Amino acid sequence: LLTFTGSSAMVSLHLVPRLIALLLLLPGRIRSSSPVFNSLLSDLQGDPELEERCRDLLRDFGRRYESYVKCAVPSARPVRICENCHIQFEMLRVVYNNISSDQSEGSGSNRSATFLLRADRLMLVYMLFQNLEDVWDVAHCSQCLSGDGLSNITLRYMAKLNQSLSCFESQKNNHSELCRVCRADYKDLNEFYSIMEKNQTLCIDIEDSMNATRRLWSKDFNCSFPREETVPVIAVSSFMLFLPIIFYLSSFLHSEQKKRRLIHPKRAKSNNSLMNIQDKHS
């Protein structure tokens, strides 16, 4: 056997003529598309069954990856990636887990995982999946899902959202009437969204749809309604506004009362003096 430095592949002697012919035919570079190179590469693997299994997993990963990307790109605006693409992402994750946990029969290590995920510096399969998984995590899609589909609270939000949007559509030609007719539905949607925000059950789909609905209500339709939390603010502001008036009024009344009190000691002193004079004369 002949061993190449830096490689674990063992080349039997009958492959040497083919290797020399390859180097003579392709001086300076090796074309991966060459049938000679592909045949030699197959022989160098030394385990055709392992290679075929890895290629099956790789092809499956490519199909699932393509399916997810075809779903995710059209769902970018408006953002509906969690709602529309959770099935495709879960299927992609299953295939990736199959690759990373695959153990060929009779081997003590994850041979397909090593061959597909860590065989080179680029680690393309690993990087492709990690990038998509990072996007999925940043979108907080798991907070909108339960089991194999959307969670119950997400479905309730979608129903309230559709109810508000349907009301907007029915009154879109009369904004003043829209504000009155759709006020109750829109307020209910806002309150339900606040509950979801407090319970941390929001994903990017819900956040984006709520922002778009609020823009429609306030900017496009020019509608508004007083919020309950503004009532204490108005009360405090009114109190602060009248506080100087109350202060000056109480100061004025207090000074007037003090003036009246200052008169009494003078009268009392006069009366005492008069009584003393009378006593002396007597």
UniProtKB/TrEMBL annotation:
Listed transmembrane segments: 231-253
Gene designation per UniProt: OSTM1
> Which Gene Ontology terms of cellular component type are present?
cytosol
Native source species: Scleropages formosus
Q: How far does the signal peptide extend, from start to end residue?
A: 1-32
**Lineage summary:** Eukaryota, Metazoa, Chordata, Craniata, Vertebrata
Q: Which domain of life does this protein belong to?
A: Eukaryota
Q: Which UniProt keywords apply?
A: Membrane, Signal, Transmembrane, Transmembrane helix
What protein name does the entry list?
Osteoclastosis associated transmembrane protein 1
InterPro entries xref list: Osteopetrosis-assoc_TM_1
List the Pfam families hit by this protein, alphabetically. OSTMP1 (PF09777)
Record flagged with keyword Cytoplasm = no
